[in-house]
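User: Predict the structure for this protein chain, please.
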Amino acid sequence: MRVAVLDLGTNTFNLIVAESAHAAGFRILHNTKLGVKLGEGGIASGEILPGAFERGIRAVEQHYQTLRSFGVTRVQAFGTSALRTARNGGEFLEAIYRKTGIEVQIISGDREAELIYHGVRQTYAMHNEKHLILDIGGGSNEFIIADGQCLYWKKSYPLGIARLLDRFKPSDPLGDEEIARVVAYIENELADLEPEVKQHSVTKLIGASGSFETFTALIRSSANYETESALEACAVPILPETFDELYRRLIRSTVEERSRMPGLEPLRIEMIVLAALFVKFVMDRFNLKQIIQSNFALKEGAVSEMLMAQ
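Assistant: Here is the predicted structure, written as C-alpha cells:
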C-alpha cells in the first residue's frame, strides 16, 4: 500500500510518500518540504494574509502533483497551529479542497504531540529511559515526556518561533534586555513543565523539527546537510557544550552575518536565534545533559499509524 501525508505547518508544508515495507515498518519514497510562512504578518491577529494564503495554496498544489506521480492510494493532510487559530482557516481549507480534492484535518496540540512521539521513537531507541521530546514549530511548540514504550505526558504551547518573533519583534542583533524579556516570558509560559520534568527524572532532550536539523547543519558547517527530508530514520547527538558554542555564535549575530553561515537555509535566518534561545533556556532550566536531533516527527508518525491500521 502506498500512502502520503501532508503536514501543513506554520512555517513549512511537508509531504511524505511511503509504502509498506514489512509488518512493522515502511519505506519512504519521497520526503520534502516547502517554505510558506503561513503565519507571516497575521499570526497574532489570527489571519492568513493574502501573500501567505497564495504561497500556501501553491505549495499544496505542488505537493499534490508530486503525490499523484507516485500513484498514492490514500492521503491524509493535517493542519496545525496557524490553521487552528486563523479566522480564515476554513476558507483556506476550502480552497485546497477545490483545487486538489484533499480534505485537511485540523488537529489539536495533543494529537500533534502524539504523532510526533510516534515519529521520533522510530529514529532513536529510548528503551525504558524517559526523554523530553521537543518539536519547535512556527505557531506552537510540543513537549512530550516518553520512553520507548509509553507516552507519559504531553502538552502543546503557543510558543512557536513565528509567534515569538511577532510578539517581541527583536532587534538586529538581539540585545541583552530583549533576551531577558524573552526568557522571562518563556519561563512563565512553561511553569507547569518543570514539575513534570523533575517527576520523571528526565536528563535528555530529543529535538524533532527543522530548527534542530539546522543546529546540526550549522555545527557541521554544511549547506548540504539534510535529515528532515531524508528517506531513512536518523538521530544525531549534539553535546551540550557544542550547542552552547553555537548558541553564543547565533545570539549576537546579525541577519546579514547569518545569511553567510553554511547550513542555514534562508527560511530560518530570522527564526533561528529565538529557536536557539528557547532550547538554551530548556537545557539550562531543566539541567538536561544531551540533545538528540531526530529527523522523524509528525508526518512519519502519521504514516506509521496509517500503515499499521491496514
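The radius of gyration is 18 Å.
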